[in-house]
Amino acid sequence: MRRAGLGEGGSGNYVASGYSVYEEENEHLQEGLRAKVNALKSLSIDIGTEVKYQNKMLEDMDTDFDSTGGLLGATIGRVKKLSRGSQTKLLCYMLLFCFFVFFVLYWFIRLR
Question: Which residues span the membrane (predicted)?
């Protein structure tokens, strides 16, 4: 008595050849999936590198803004100290001089 799919000739070769076709197709699809996974892996590594670089830049900018804020705070403190004293005329003259300088610079730039 013969079992189906076993032995020579008959339907066994058909089943085995069908199985090998499916196996080859699966291997082909597996290779395609492996290539896509590798592409995603390299992309995620690149994104991670870019995020680290952007975070470093943000930290540097934060440090710069903090130092600038401290400098501006100290300058405004000095201006307030000047305005509290009897040197208000000096402060007005200084502001008028600054406006004059900016106006002259604007005028020169405008003529070019």
Answer: 90-109
* Higher pLDDT pick, 50 / 90: 50
Question: Which amino acid would we find at residue 53?
Answer: Y
Residue-averaged pLDDT of the chain: 82
pTM value > 0.85: no
CB 4 within 8 A of CB 11: yes
Q: In angstroms, rounded to a whole number, what is the distance separating the alpha carbons of residues 44 and 38?
A: 10
Return the amino acid letter for 97: F
d(CA 100, CA 88): 18
- H/E run at residue 96: helix 88-111
* pLDDT computed for residue 68 by the predictor: 84
Cα(18)–Cα(6) distance, integer angstroms: 14
Distance CA 24, CA 30 (A): 10
